[in-house]
Amino acid sequence: MSVHTMLEAVNLSKRYEDGALAVDDVSFSVRPGEIFAMLGGNGAGKTTTINIFLNFLEPTAGEARINGIAAHRAPLEAKRHVAFVSENVMLYPTFTAVQNLDYFARLGGKTQYTADDYRRVLLRVGLQEEAHHKKLKGFSKGMRQKCGIAIAILKDAPAILLDEPTSGLDPKSGFEFMQLLGSLRDEGKAVLMSTHDIFRAKETADTIGIMRQGRLVMQRSRAGLAGEDLERLYMEHMAGVHE
Amino acid sequence: MLATIIVHELKNILFSPKFSVTVAVASVLLLLSVVAGIGQYRAAAAQYETTTQLVQQEMREARGWMALTNKVLRRPDPMQIFVSGVANDVGRLSGVNAFQAVKLSHSTFSDDPVYAVFRFIDLSFIVAVVFSLLAVLFTYDAVNGEKERGTLQLTFANAVPRAQYILGKFAGAWLGLVLPLLVPMLLSLLLLAVTAVPMTAEEWGRTVLLFGGAVLYVTVFVALGILLSTLTPRSSASFLYALVLWVCAVFIVPRAGTTLAGHLVPVPTVAETEARRDAFAKDRWAQYEAQMQSRWKERNAPLEGMTKEEREAYRDEKMWEWMEQDDQDRKQVQTDIDEQARRLTEELRNRRMEQERLAFTLSRLSPASSFQLAAMNLAGTDIALKTRYEDALNGYRTLFNEYKEKKAKESGNSGGFRIEVNSDTGVKIDAGRERGVLDLTGMPQFTHPSPSAAETMRSAFIDLGLLGLFSLAAFAGAFVRFLRYDVR
Ligand SMILES: Nc1ncnc2c1ncn2[C@@H]1O[C@H](COP(=O)(O)OP(=O)(O)OP(=O)(O)O)[C@@H](O)[C@H]1O
Ligand SMILES: [Mg+2]
After folding, report:
1. Residues of chain A whose C-beta is under 8 A from some C-beta in B?
2. Three-class SS of residue A24?
3. How many of the other CB atoms lie within 10 Å of CB of B158?
4. Closest alpha carbon to B278 in B350, B343, B341, B346
5. What would the mean pLDDT of B68-93 be, rounded to a whole number?
6. How close is the Cα of B228 to the center of ligand 1, in Å?
7. Which of these, A158, A147, A162, lies nearest to A101 by C-alpha position?
8. Mind giving me the DSSP string for B222-255?
């Protein structure tokens, strides 16, 4: 394990109680300042992989490490170094955006934030100012997603896990979101993201992995993809052409 | 961390739109019930005073010592303000005299049946029914609701220990539900002090314990709600379970326990017992009559062959002896009948106590029963209220009758009519009223029974202890369950 690895899957496998092998001997690593995008069809095992990093699931074999710490061995220690954005987080509908942010910031151990900090981060993720003190029950899915991203930013962790973060965003917001992710990478964050958005993944990610039936069937750096048609590659992998 | 979670959970409950329209209304209802209770207590106390004075008046104007009948009223108890218990079902008035057994009649509900239809809404009812419902309604989705909103994942993406989280959730929800209970309870204490309801130090103490019991009871339901929310992955399911659990705990189990006990330990009805008592009395009097007849024959036997003068002389000589003997026998009959009545009552009571014990044991499966039993014990409006009064009345009846007899002897009249025929004064009928009014000085006064403090505490602590155990068990269940809960 190099010091430069922030997120690392080592021969990771997960077999559910019902016998389904959701993750099958997957290995990859994400360094600080790198975005790793996981592509793959429905049920490929992306969410399962992320859940093992968060210790929501125990691996059947192998390890998921955050900053060198195996998530299932020292979960509390490991989670200090990671922020998480899930696919569809509703947050607390009777709390305002700022109240939601404040609660999760505190859970993440950040008690020093001021009202101005919350305002700035919400503006950074693109939530218009008049919504900052509105209750979340009136928010659209995309607005909630922006709050979720703001929460992840506020945690200021060296690693960020995102499970289909752009799924609720309109095209403009999706674009802005990818820009934001780029700036986080430039700040030195290690980003692991699952997505179905091949186009955006290609635009932003430093490394692209394709999962199929639990296995990481392709893993290439941006340089390695130069001149390749990612969409075609993806389709071929889905069809099992390269096996 | 723990403080953050507690404060968040508390805010989550306090700021929820459901909160103001339900919990706040319940708080106001609680306070109103105390206000109404104070009003009712004051009215009852005033009625008690006037009726007691009327009874005194009536007694002074009684026909004579032997005809003297006292009426004892059950004194209203300020603790009824919170827990009416059986206070409205048990009769408030009993005659005390030599001829009748004591029997409490004229209960509030028999005098005003309209109240019996819906019962009184008192603090213990509101806590037992309304606050328990609110407690489960605000906690049934404590954990699985967070899972559905995705906030559980988001929470545990942080370095949050599960034990702290579930503890914080419990503490926050508990505060959110106990505060709206504590505020009106404290206000009602203030109200009692301001309106100068006469309460002894012991009664204040009992009230505080009662309020503590209410808090403990709500705690049980908070813990149960959280337990349910960790047992089911969907809040729609736990909502249903919570309602079923609440209905069973508050309505089904207490009643089922009592009904089951009724079948397992049948108790003869009061009518049956009274019929047995009356039959015995009839038999005993018939026996007495037969005895009198044979004795009459015996007494008249030696008269055969005497002259008229001799007979007169013999009769005059024996008269006192005979009268004393007859009187003694008559008294013996009455004693026998009283003794039999006492035995029957005791038998009935023992049987009933056995049934009660079983009913209580069974119904204590529900925390609602434990709370109600504790509340009634602490308020002295428990099931034993009637027997307590009956025992006190029986004791008093003995004293009162002794006093009456003594007074009657002193005044030299038996209370009946006395007809004197005198050649000088003519016929004089004495109805036993030498003076205009009877002088009742020295008459024993009825002491109102109150449950012994030791006994009250003993039975209250059983139930409060059970509530504590319930809360602990439910929370321990939720805690253990949550340590392995799937947050995805
Ligand atoms: N709790 C579970 N129990 C059993 N099998 C599960 C469970 N969760 C997921 N699976 C199975 O594991 C496999 C991987 O699921 P996963 O959710 O990781 O896929 P995914 O790549 O995130 O898919 P999607 O793009 O649809 O989100 C699927 O075959 C799924 O049916
Ligand atoms: Mg998924």
Report:
1. 51, 54-57, 75-77, 79-80, 82-84, 86, 88-95, 99, 103-104, 106-109, 148, 151, 155, 161
2. strand
3. 24
4. B341
5. 90
6. 27
7. A147
8. HHHHHHHHHH-S-HHHHHHHHHHHHHIIIIIHHH
- The H or E element that residue A214 is part of is none
Residue B154: other Cβ atoms inside 10 A: 26
Here the ipTM equals 0.94
Total domains in the fold of chain B: 1
| Token couple for A157 | 């962790």
Strands A207-212 and A34-40: parallel
Q: Is residue B100 part of a domain?
A: yes
- Encoding tokens for residue A145? 């997603």
B488 at A interface, C-beta within 8 A: yes
| Sign of the dihedral through C-alpha A63, A66, A70, A75 | negative
- The beta strand positions in B97-148, using DSSP E, are none
What is the Cα Rg of chain A in Å?
Answer: 18
Nearest 5°: phi and psi at A83?
Answer: -115, 155
Query: Amino acid identity, residue B262?
Result: G
Residue A169: CB partners within 8 Å, gap ≥ 6?
A142, A145, A146, A177
Domain-located, residue B272 = no
* Segment B422-445, tens digit of pLDDT: 666 666 655 544 556 788 888 899
Beta carbons of A195 and A203 less than 8 angstroms apart? no
pLDDT in tens, A13-67: 999 999 999 999 999 999 999 999 999 999 999 999 999 999 999 999 999 999 9
* C-alpha to C-alpha distance for B153 and A138, rounded to whole angstroms: 22
CA nearest neighbour of B102 among B346, B337, B396, B382: B396
Pairwise CA distance, residues B473 & B460, whole Å: 20
Tell me the three state secondary structure of residue B182. helix
- Token pair of A49 as six digits: 């992989």
Q: Which residue has the tokens 């602590």?
A: B461
Residue B14: which domain range?
2-267+447-483
CA angle at A173 for the pair A167 and A179, rounded to the nearest 5°: 100
